[in-house]
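Before the break, one more example. Copy the sequence into your notebook; we will annotate it together after we see the structure.
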Amino acid sequence: MGLPVVISPDISDDSGIIEKENTGVVVDLSDSNAAAASITKLEALLKDKIALKEKIRQIAIHYRSFNIAEQIYKEIYN
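Here is what the structure looks like once it is written out:
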């Protein structure tokens, strides 16, 4: 969908991908200071919505496409 992700720390490898690729924010929502800083970061990310949407879509294809699962299933079941 191209939307920036808000995710908690240490969620699978997704938190690391989001942080590394700068496609959202990784935040401990129990920390009000971190939550406020994350909103500021989201606002900055959303300044160029078209470029961000395309970047997020490309990152999603790279890390989470159905082709990846298909290849893994082929390796497991063949």
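The CA atoms of residues 62 and 68 lie 9 Å apart. Strands lie at 5-7, 24-26. Try to locate both features in your own notes.
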